[in-house]
């Protein structure tokens, strides 16, 4: 980014100061955009890893594990039903 600014300023020696400020602002915005995109990619990668881990855990579950999940869910549904009746 600074290199682009350097090229512009050296090839356009009579550029108005307001134009230079606008160019600097644009370059700052581009840098912020790149940082934002990088953060989004890192976040997506972290979420992907978490989903992959959960899928791996599900793949390794046996019938007893599924039965425990069913029982836990049934208890949650009963508790929610009782809560609505109160």
Structural topology:
Blueprint: H1 2-11, H2 17-59, H3 63-85
Give an account of the 3D structure.
This protein starts with a helix and ends with a helix. The protein has 3 helices and no strands. The chain has one domain. The protein has 86 residues and is mostly helical. Helix content is 88%, strand content 0%. The longest helix is centred in the middle third of the chain and has 43 residues.
Helical residues, percent = over 70%
The class by helix and strand makeup works out as mainly alpha
What is the overall shape? elongated
Low-confidence stretches: none
- The ordered H/E elements are HHH
Return the average pLDDT rounded to an integer: 87
Strand count:
0
Task: Give keywords.
mainly alpha
Briefly, what is this?
The chain is built from three helices and no strands.
């Amino acid at each position: 980014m600074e290199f682009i600014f350097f090229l512009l300023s050296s090839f356009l020696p009579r550029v108005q100061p307001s134009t230079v400020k606008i160019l600097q602002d644009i370059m700052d915005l581009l840098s912020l955009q790149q940082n934002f995109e990088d953060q989004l990619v890192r976040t997506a990668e972290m979420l992907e890893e978490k989903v992959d881990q959960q899928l791996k855990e599900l793949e390794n579950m046996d019938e007893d594990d599924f039965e425990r999940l069913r029982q836990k869910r049934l208890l949650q549904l009963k508790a929610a039903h009782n809560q609505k009746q109160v």
